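In the laboratory, one determines a bound structure by crystallizing the protein with its ligand and collecting diffraction data. In a computational setting the workflow is compressed into a single prediction: the sequence and the ligand go in, and a structural description comes out. We illustrate the idea with zinc ion.
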Amino acid sequence: MSDDHYITSEDPDHPANLIPSLCAKFWTLGWVTGTGGGCSIRNDDLVYIAPSGVQKELMKNTDIYVLALSKQTDLKNRVYLRSPPCGRPSQCTPLFLAAFTKRGAGCCIHTHSHWAVLVTLLLEAQGPGKDKLFEINNIEQIKGFGKGFQKQGNLGYHDTLRIPVIENTAHEEDLTEFLEEAMDQHPDTYAVLVRRHGVYVWGDNVHKAKTMCESLDYLFQLAVEMKQLGIPWLSDIPVTVPTSRR
Ligand SMILES: [Zn+2]
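The predicted complex, in structure-token form:
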């Protein structure tokens, strides 16, 4: 029997249809140009992944790989329920799987956004000891982030958003152990920056992952521009309370 039933659906929200349409939108933002970056969606045990080395804005549902988390006993020999006739599995696969297995995420997005890369370069320029964590507070868009793993609600305007940074490796899959280490050290983060490379962002579902990825890109761009203007990312500003709430 053909394995195409995993990817054949009229529903635009089916992961095999949603990954190509999301990637086409991400391409216009410069997040997945030159075949870099990608997106993966988990539906219970099934994981849908964009292939490696393809034009991300031109992908079709027939390009999508499908695997079952429960069948991945040997990490060196990954078992796919469906593989496209041509193409190769994404090098991001073990990183996406880390977000699904360690955080129970429903979606993971990887971008090569200029703003993410620039933020890692600005941190690098601060020198050793000051280059491993991006921190920003007192910006409205911080409210786009969840409080953390298994926590209810979102961060507030005055809260500090912290995103760890890991060093890049020659091969994308070799990032996995460092990404997992960053997840352990920062259990509440929904994103990890990769130096001179980009960012991985995940969420409980597609909506949350996309919202956080967009909010983060907005904040990265803002952070780069703040730096150019000599404005610090962390500020100590008074809390304004309306008269009716005092
Ligand atoms: Zn990448």
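The first strand starts at residue 38 and ends at 43. Keep in mind that any predicted model is a hypothesis to be tested, not a measurement.
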